[in-house]
What does this fold into?
Amino acid sequence: MRAIKEARHLIEKAPDDASAQILARLVVALETEVNFSISDIYKLNREQFDLALRILQEWRLDRYYAGKARLFGTALHASEIAQKD
It folds into this structure.
């Protein structure tokens, strides 16, 4: 499964989970070109850390596809949930 799709599923499954929030902030930062504290990915477990690295690799691709747009929407929604708390 592509990292983008995997991250979307993880964030949709538990948008208020700390790991999902870190991945969501990473995605929002990549899409909006705002700062992201790279040290945050070290808070992830090994599997999620690897997922974050795969997201970075896929993001570098110049191709834009629907999965990326859906993931951004999911990540943005999760970020909004976190801000309400």
The CA atoms of residues 27 and 72 lie 6 Å apart. The longest helix spans residues 66-84.
